[in-house]
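quick one
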Amino acid sequence: MSLKRKDLLSIASLSAEEIRLILETAESFKEVSGREIKKVPALRGKTVVNLFFEPSTRTRTSFELAAKRLSADVINFVPSSSSVTKGESLIDTARNIEAMRADMIVLRHPAAGSAETLAATVRASVINGGDGWHEHPTQALLDLFTIQEKKRTIQGLRVAIVGDLAHSRVARSNIQALTKLGAEVRAVGPPTMMPVGLERLGVRVTYRMDEGIRGADVIMMLRLQIERQGRALFPSLREYATLYGLNADRLKLAEAGALVMHPGPINRGVEIASDVADSVSSVILEQVTNGVAVRMGVLYLLSGAAA
Ligand code: CP
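structure w/ phosphoric acid mono(formamide)ester:
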């Protein structure tokens, strides 16, 4: 089976079957990163452009590594040293990149819907590397991959997503992905950071941390998206940490062997205590490792190489 689509724009647009295909393909690529020579020729001759209009450590680096491990040529476009500073638009920038025969564009942009707009404009495959508050599909896919690796299945797991859900594209993508694969999702956070209508997606909403993480198999902590909030949604970081931070005592409320996850970057001492982030329960760095395999799978499937 192949992924019969040009672009990967959202989890909402993927079927459960397509999600499973990406996870299976990533599984077959994970072994490549453990080799001494971490390279296969699957995308030889293809060109991947990372077009990042927002800062990134994990997503940009792992897309670059994923493309290079598949033997593609990779260009990292840096807006601050490009003609974007002279007023060139996203679409014109992308059209010019495509004119140089780029095959795939990974876009991170502050505007929700930007990846969809770009995909409708260019012939190259577009992969959404995070668009505003909207979605971050490859983050959710690597999160699913990590959970499945540890717990064997997603079906029936109780997953608590904790924090600033309102501004989190990671939460939006994960809610879609987890519910499609049959997990029971709980959204936990202050009312000011809770989007309306989550119940319609089959999510249980609670404003009480202890209730939300009791008996959870997976606790997914979110970063406070202060840069997107625009106004204070909580009296102080100290109060936020007291009410919604994950510490060692709170972790005891979860199921034995519960996984602690975080998409990064983490704010130690705010949403997660340092000892919990570095504990045996934490799979935060394994998420990062798996991100390369998942992005290799996505690039491969979208390249048409699997058809
Ligand atoms: N998780 C994530 O998207 O991290 P970066 O912002 O560093 O890419």
